[in-house]
Write a structure and sequence with these properties.
The chain has about 325 residues and is an alpha/beta fold. The protein has nine helices and 15 strands.
């Protein structure tokens, strides 16, 4: 692919500067064209570090730039809806950080706006673009571990002492389910290849952290008795693992949501234990290239509506945790 997608970066968040911008710079299909921040000095500093020539002190100016084809939005969760819709109205393709929105209604509105504007919208779940996730899906669908019964997913870290963290602001979409619980939830939907039927969740809502869920765990029910058992937390010892348990074996995936060059996983069956060396890759770079391919007329790896379905599940988990009740999900 010889064409280059001209990217505008909306904000100087850590995920942008440390992961996404270097990935776009190193991708086959993208070029960093412009950056905007409410703090112009910060935008200038970041632009200089990445060799970006066009710098703006407002997001509006970035969206008005005719030399920008697509924008990446790493803003706090509560700002996603506004700026995705405004980007679509400006004719820009949009890669928006996860979670796409604060609820499924917002997400559906964003998808509709981008569809009407004829622009591509993608939720930035970079791990889904790593070759390892495709290999796992092929092994599971091929019956290597028999029929999958249970997936166990965990993603935790401890940042509780950082009380000024925006992830702890309830009105801004703070909490562990929004921040990292979304990973095992989306992984189970992908690997099972279907949408869940019900969820039961339990959470620690911390008054010290604006009553966001600092820790959550639960069970998500799928058809045929299958389930996801998950845990996520921002006030717990760091852990990240995905276990896929079938009738004839299991697959253990270390650091499933941050895989890079070290992408090996372990398959346990009656024939023994074997290490599988999946293809290494920078998932952020693969995400950028997959996005550009979709913009340039290829088939999107994941359709925008997938983000709406994941938001439905996150909403259901939060509702279950708050009410202490099992929540049924309507089938799409």
């Amino acid at each position: 692919m010889n064409r280059k997608l001209r990217w505008g970066i909306m904000g100087c968040a850590g995920i942008a500067v440390n992961s996404v911008m270097p990935a776009i710079r190193d991708s086959k299909t993208g070029i960093l064209t412009a950056i905007a921040s409410r703090g112009l000095d910060k935008a200038k500093e970041t632009a200089e570090a990445f060799g970006i020539s066009r710098v703006y002190g407002s997001y509006e100016e970035l969206l008005a730039d005719p030399g920008v084809d697509a924008v990446y939005i790493p803003l706090p969760n509560h700002l996603h809806r506004e700026w995705v819709i405004r980007a679509a109205a400006a004719g820009k393709h949009v890669l928006c950080e996860k979670p796409l929105a604060l609820d499924a209604r917002e997400a559906a509105e964003m998808v509709e706006a981008c569809t009407k504007a004829g622009v591509h919208l993608a939720e930035a779940f970079m791990y889904r673009h790593h070759p390892r996730i495709l290999q796992l899906k092929e092994l599971i669908d091929g019956g290597v571990i028999g029929e999958v019964r249970v997936i166990r997913g965990a993603f935790t870290y401890n940042a509780a002492a950082d009380t000024g963290n925006i992830r702890f602001v309830s009105a801004w979409g703070g909490g562990s389910l929004y921040d990292i619980g979304c990973y095992p939830l989306s992984a189970a939907r992908l690997l099972f290849g279907e949408e869940p039927e019900a969820v039961t969740a339990h959470a620690l809502f911390s008054p010290e952290h604006d009553n966001v869920d600092m820790m959550a765990s639960g069970m998500v029910e799928f058809s045929g008795g299958k389930s996801l058992i998950f845990e996520c937390g921002m006030w717990a010892f760091g852990r990240q693992v995905l276990d896929i348990i079938g009738t004839e074996g299991r697959i253990e995936v270390p650091r499933p949501f941050n895989g890079s060059d070290d992408a090996a996983f372990t398959v346990h069956t009656k024939d023994g234990i074997r290490e599988v060396d999946a293809e290494g890759a920078n998932p952020y770079t693969r995400q950028a290239d997959d996005f550009a391919e979709a913009v340039f007329g290829g088939k999107p790896r994941y359709v925008p509506a997938d983000a709406v379905l994941n938001m439905m599940l996150i909403e259901a988990c939060l509702h279950s945790a708050r009410t202490r009740e099992r929540v049924n999900l309507s089938r799409p």
